Amino acid sequence: MSDKTVFLSEKEALNLSRKILLEKGFSEGFSRAISETVVAGQKDGCGSHGLYRILGCIKTLEAGGVVPDAEPRVEESAGSIVRINANGGFSQLSFSLGLPLLAEKARENGIALLAINHCVHFSALWIEVEQITQKGLVAIACNPTQAYVAPHGGNAPLLGTNPFAFGWPRPDKPPFIFDFATSQIARGDVELHEREGKPIPDGWGVDSKGQGCNDPRVVLQEGAQLTFGEHKGAAISMMIELIAGPLIGDLMSYESSQHDEGKGALPYHGELIIAIDPAFTAGKNFEQHLARAETLFGSIGSQGARLPSERRYKNREKSKKEGIEISEKLHLELCALL
To answer: Which residue in the list 31, 44, 49, 94 is annotated as catalytic?
Structure first.
């Protein structure tokens, strides 16, 4: 199998993705928004959430798992709540519609919650969280997926990979952001190992009998992924099932799998996003308190430790200079779709 790579400019990558999605039947709005999302992942070096995801979007469309021209709408809600009905479409347009309302309510009340319902979600959460921090707000986001992960001590898929993201705005610097699956690794990384014919490391998954397994195909099709941190990761995953599922009136991961009916589409569920205005919560001297956070970040760096997202920012700068790198195999697959 070839390890060769191809370099694309950001414009070339966006145009390639957009043309494919338009040709396959997605609306102009979704083709643009999805392309911006996957290219953002690719240029930050996140291959599992980059252009590879176009293949999953198309598979989901062909399986009838997403509405390609859905029009999200704002639904009536009270207080600090913003509710967007995605109407079966991918989440990107719903987030774009809800972000200005979320920021407005956060500044009015100190904190606000955005519930995106009836959406299909596949992207990294940091892409959304970063947009919130650019408005000077602290952000939290999470969502269930489908039942891919066994609870600690179990052997059958029940929980999702259930990503969780946090963003903290920084003056004159890229925001502090972490975004991780509550599974040992994101499902996309297991899928990439399968595509490349590589075994997965110990601890990523089990077979149908609950025994440790290094075969990505077995883990994906017959077994289950595992949570990070054993019972601790499982507890956080269960929290996400609840607060991004029943709390906002949407599906948990096992219910999303039932909804899928074996089609193999990307997960259909809801997403929870919280925005907090530090100018409101920390008081009139909030800028001084934010400066104290910079002391913490500086102390971490002085020990030689890396802050979450620093590697992504370096990859982003590298992509600007050298182009966006993807595997030759994936590039050929994408071009063949035209």
So the answer is: 49
Instruction: Pick the catalytic residue from 31, 35, 48, 319.
Output: 48
Q: Please, are residues 243 and 250 in contact by the beta-carbon 8 Å criterion?
A: no
d(CA 12, CA 118): 32
Concerning whether 121 is annotated as a catalytic residue, the answer is no
Question: pLDDT tens digits, residue range 131-141?
Answer: 999 999 999 99
Please state, in angstroms and rounded to a whole number, the distance separating the CA atoms of residues 200 and 205. 8
Contact present, 273 and 114 (Cβ < 8 Å): yes
pTM above threshold 0.70: yes
Name the DSSP letter for residue 294.
H
SS3 per residue for 244-271: CCHHHCCCCHHHHHHHHCCCCCCCEEEE
Per-residue pLDDT reduced to its tens digit, 245-288: 999 999 999 999 999 999 999 999 999 999 999 999 998 888 89
- Give dist(CA 75, CA 329) in Å, integer: 43
Q: Tell me the residue ranges of DSSP E strands in the chain.
A: 5-8, 73-75, 81-85, 111-120, 138-142, 164-170, 173-180, 205-206, 224-225, 268-276, 324-327
Cβ contact 136:169 at 8 Å: yes
Confirm if 316 and 309 have CB atoms less than 8 A apart: no
Query: Could you give the dihedral angle defined by the CA atoms of residues 282, 283, 286 and 289, in that order, rounded to the nearest 10 degrees?
Result: -50
Please indicate whether residue 48 is annotated as part of the active site: yes
- Respond yes or no: is residue 189 known to be catalytic: yes
Residue 106 burial (C-beta neighbours within 10 Å; 0-12, 13-18, 19+): buried
- Give CA 155 to chain center in angstroms: 25
Exactly one of 35, 118, 179, 189 is catalytic; name it: 189
Query: Under a CB-based contact definition with an 8 Å cutoff, are residues 116 and 270 in contact?
Result: yes
Cβ contact 243:164 at 8 Å: no
- The Cα 44–Cα 49 span in angstroms is 10
Distance CA 35, CA 30 (A): 8
34 backbone φψ class: left, alpha, beta (φ>0; ψ -120 to 50) = alpha
